[in-house]
Design brief:
The structure is a single chain. By secondary structure, the chain is an alpha+beta fold. α1 crosses α2. It is globular, with a radius of gyration of 14 Å. 32% of the residues are buried.
Length: 130
């Protein structure tokens, strides 16, 4: 079990998510709850964030630094297709210079969040964050 977030950490992560579409559609309370349930990780430059094929589907939000997918995409939200097709998992690597800090949701948690925060799904359906 991880230690509870300090209010400063929570505020920093909420602010970082708010800067990423479609998370900017969510209310502060929804963002705070999402930050509490998301897995948080920091990656060294060039480190593998997600192995891709054979890996568990995850929605990965890059909140600091940068990541790049095997396809060359470097959007701050990765893994949305894998939420609906577990075979659509793509390899993701932290930036070679600055690394990355991410929040991630497994498939089950993503669908729980989606049910509670329909504005997030509307944003994805309208093409934001992909």
């Amino acid at each position: 079990m991880t230690a509870p977030l300090s209010s400063s950490e929570r505020e920093q992560r909420v602010a970082a998510l708010r800067a990423i579409a479609p998370f900017d559609r969510l209310a502060d309370l929804e963002l705070a709850l999402l930050v509490e349930v998301a897995a948080h990780r920091r990656y060294a430059p060039g480190a593998v964030v997600h192995h891709g094929e054979g890996g568990a589907p995850k929605l990965i939000m890059t909140i600091a630094g940068a990541t790049r997918a095997a396809s060359g995409s470097n959007h701050p939200v990765a893994g949305l297709p894998s939420m609906f097709d577990p075979y659509a998992v793509e390899r993701l690597v932290a930036d070679d210079t600055v690394g990355a800090e991410t929040l991630s949701l497994d498939r089950q948690t993503f669908f729980t969040v989606a049910r509670e925060c329909p504005a997030l799904i509307r944003g994805f359906l309208e093409g934001e964050g992909i």
